[in-house]
Amino acid sequence: MRRLEKRSGRLADWTRALLTRRHSNVVACALANKLARTAWAIIARHTTFDPGLAKAPA
After folding, report:
1. Residue 14 in contact with residue 55, Cβ under 8 Å?
2. Fewer CB atoms inside 10 Å of the end CB: C or N, the chain?
3. Are the CB atoms for 18 and 30 separated by under 8 Å?
4. Among 5, 11, 7, 1, which Cα is nearest to 54's?
5. How would DSSP label each residue in the chain?
6. CB 24 within 8 A of CB 12
7. pLDDT 10s per residue in the chain (58 long)?
């Protein structure tokens, strides 16, 4: 989250939006959880990450 202002993309946008509503420690935990779930899904499905296939935020 230190270099978030230099990042672009959906994950960075999601993190910035969450930072406006929650404390930075909560955002760090939520980000770690999101990345861990993504990594688990990739490993469990024996696939590679394709950001184009990710669902758009509702």
Report:
1. no
2. C
3. yes
4. 11
5. -TTGGG--SHHHHHHHHHHHHS-HHHHHHHHHHHHHHHHHHHHHTT----GGGSPPP-
6. no
7. 778 889 888 889 999 999 999 999 999 999 999 999 999 999 999 988 877 776 655 4
